[in-house]
Design a protein that fits this description.
Blueprint (H helix, E strand, L loop, with lengths): L2 H9 L8 H8 L3 H9 L6 H14 L5 H8 L4 E6 L5 H16 L3 E6 L4 H13 L4 E4 L6 H9 L4 E4 L9 E5 L1 H14 L5 E5 L5 H16 L9 E3 L4 H12 L7 E4 L2 H13 L9 E6 L12 E4 L2 H17 L7 E4 L2 E3 L11
The protein binds alpha-D-ribofuranose.
Length: 351
């Protein structure tokens, strides 16, 4: 097919895909000149560059990124693995990652491990097979072996939100224990003395550290640590709901609950409301994350704010730097949390 028939074919909406050779013929240059312009791999005269760019535009030529990727054994794609894509915290972190990546000409593949270690490993292999440039990783559980394996395979990696102990790897997280202390001290300052805590997944660092912060605040105020007031959740709505029903049935129920994430705090509010317990008059509730949902609960949720966008943006920045330099020492970034007071916490009820 001659070049002009070819362009006419395109003019009829033909599905012909222009090749580098077509561009070279229309521009009157060699294929290697077109390749150097497309890949910016060698200096080309302005005249030839303009001829190539004009021919590419006329033909609607798009570089074959798959072929480029196979040659480079790398794509301009970043992989992200989260343990629960339905949790707005991870959705908001993912948005920050996508914003930051797109600005640097990277696209993002989001994988949901659903808290399952086998699925988590399977997805890391899928991402590596798809030649991602690097991975942003939120651990589904104890993931030391997997992260060490990725390091050995020289996969650029940043661990986000949940520390993976025993491995030298770039990490971005917030000061979870600090947030636990802030939440509990806020309730103590409101006069509460029977403060319950609903923990998240015990096998990941954020929950354990937030509980430590809760216990540290109680001890710092000479309040007893009552095991009956510490219940195990899983960072999902239902576990906060069930734990709250259990707590409110105690002979001496708590007057305040610190839930180790916002979804469980929403479950708390739902259970208390169902039982006719008024928030915050009869029960105060504090969450952790400050996802956008927290402003729209009834009543709006007092919570510990994580710098969610900053977590995603910083993790992405660190990963792009790691892609360019695999050998630099691992970096460990801990960001501050902040108390965000709304209307789900109030003074301890008068008995
Ligand atoms: O809400 C999900 C929780 O898991 C968040 O608090 C985040 O810190 C992650 O650990």
């Amino acid at each position: 097919m001659g070049i002009w028939q070819y362009i006419k074919c395109l003019g009829r909406g033909g599905a012909v895909i222009a090749t580098m050779r077509d561009v070279a013929r229309l521009a009157g240059v060699s294929v290697s000149t077109v390749s150097h312009v497309v890949n910016n791999s060698r200096a080309v005269s302005d005249e030839s560059r303009q001829l190539v760019l004009q021919a590419m535009e006329e033909l609607g030529y798009r570089p074959n990124t798959l072929a480029q990727s196979l040659r480079r054994q790398k794509t301009n794609t970043i992989g992200m693995i989260v343990p629960d894509s339905a949790n707005p915290f991870f959705a908001e972190v993912a948005r920050a990652i996508e914003d930051t990546s797109f600005a640097k000409n990277y696209s993002v593949i989001l994988c949901n491990s659903e808290g399952n270690l086998e699925k988590q490993r399977a997805y890391t292999n899928v991402l590596i097979d798809n030649l991602v440039a690097g991975i942003l990783f939120v651990a589904a559980g104890v993931s030391t072996e997997l992260v060490e394996d990725l390091r050995q395979r020289r996969v650029p990696l940043v661990v986000v939100d949940r520390e993976v102990p025993g491995v030298e790897v770039d990490t971005v997280m917030t000061h979870h224990a600090q947030g636990g202390r802030l939440a509990t001290q806020h309730l103590i300052d409101l006069g509460h003395r029977r403060i319950a805590c609903i923990a998240g997944n015990s096998e990941v660092s954020p929950s354990a550290e937030r509980v430590t912060g809760y216990q540290d605040a109680l001890s710092a105020n000479d309040l007893p640590i009552d095991d009956n007031l510490l219940l195990k959740g899983d960072f999902r709505y239902e576990s906060g709901y069930q734990a709250t029903r259990q707590l409110l049935c105690l002979n001496s129920p708590p007057t305040a609950i610190f839930a180790c994430n916002d979804l469980m705090a929403v479950g708390c509010i739902s259970a208390a409301t169902e039982l006719g317990v008024r928030i915050p008059d009869q029960l105060s509730v504090v969450g952790f994350d400050n996802v956008r949902l927290a402003s729209f609960t009834n009543p709006p949720l007092t919570t510990i704010a994580q710098p969610i966008f900053e977590i995603g943006a910083l993790a992405t920045k660190m990963l792009l730097e790691r892609i360019d330099d695999l050998k630099a020492p691992a970096r460990f970034k801990i960001l501050d949390t902040d108390l965000c007071v709304r209307y789900s916490s109030g003074p301890v009820p008068n008995d």
